[in-house]
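Most newcomers find our protein records easier to grasp once they have seen one. A learned vocabulary of local backbone shapes supplies the integers on the structure line. An example says more than a description, so a record of this kind follows:
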Amino acid sequence: MIKLFGTNGIRGDAEKVFTNDFCFKIGATFAFYLQNNLRLVGPIAVGYDPRYSSYRILKWIIYGLRSQKAQIYDEGITPSPCLTYFTKVSEALGGIMITGSHVREDMNGLKLYIKGEEVTKKQEAEIEELYDKMQAILKPQAYDGQVKLENRAMETYKKMLINLARGKFPKTKVVVDAGNGTQSLCMPEVLRELGVEVVETCCDLANPLLSRDTETQGAFEEMRKVVIDNKADFGIGYDSDGDRAVFVTNQGQMLTGDVSCSIITKFEPGQYVVTPINTSSVVEHIGKKVERTKVGATQVAARMKEVGANYGFEANGGGISAEIFYGRDGGSTTIKMLKILRSTKKDLQSLVNELPRFYQVREKVDCERELNEKIVAAARAKYSKLKMEELDGLKLIFPSGDWLLFRASGNAPEFRVFTESKDEKEAKRLNDEGMALVKSFIK
């Protein structure tokens, strides 16, 4: 059977994978799935990020939805969490977000939502099976029909964030870096409404999209400089569809997503926190029971439901709050951090300094998927005497507590190496060693 979904939605080359034919058929398949498999009859909301291929993809997705007589709400350029939340609280029962998230500008992707959540792994398999059956009989063509153009998803999301804040944040200065992506239209306005002095950088849709991986070191270096120059309380950076958030402290320290989300976790109710295998050990030191999962927001959300956790997060800065919806949300992550600073009367750097310091290095390299198993097998042989965990990829744990993770990306033809140590130089040395092994297989 055809495999469409990766770690988080469907991703691939904008021209080779997201052909007009494919976009039509996946749109039609999703509408048919909602109407017939789930017996959900209602509007489907669509949104997109501002990369150059998104509008063409949108057009053919809409044709596919129309072929199944679906009612369509076009929410325009909007952050992914806007669309997720909208399908939870409005009459729109399904949603399709066209976004490549953090991947290169020549790639794109789709995220599918049902009633306020990304489709589960079980639903992904059912959609793939249905697509496999329907693709031979579907005939892509332009279908006429009405599409309701609106921005209710954005407005509904903004109201939710303002209500979540429960008051304003006077005398607070924040640098916002949206990478000229979807949050350019949302978070600066929300923060100003809450009394925050906002310094914008890369918040202009008229400029080229900066599709940056929030886990790549140095990706938000310009934001860090702006924070220092403006003596801001902190900086907040988003990926192109706005469901990930990363922070820079008032002293210019760039925080990995697992550090900032660990701070938020510390102040969340409940005894559990859920996070994937690749996140920092710092989360083990905040007084919560830690549940580890495979990498992926849907994996985290599923485990949160199982153990009754109120909060979960990924290493990329994607925080998930059960009381809002079971999906990543850069907006609520920002508001929650502001509330913590307000209630503790501490600056962000002080909160970071209260945590034990671990150093992480996260690197990736383009790698053909057929090499993945060979690389993992070689790593297993090389480090055979170490403790191993194979929940997702191969995690090697040293007697010192340092660890090295080999993992193939589920979203793109890339291979990732993660390392962590209490010694900065050792974290770098281990990562160099791991990357050397990976690169030895790449011609």
Observations:
- The chain has a mean pLDDT of 96.
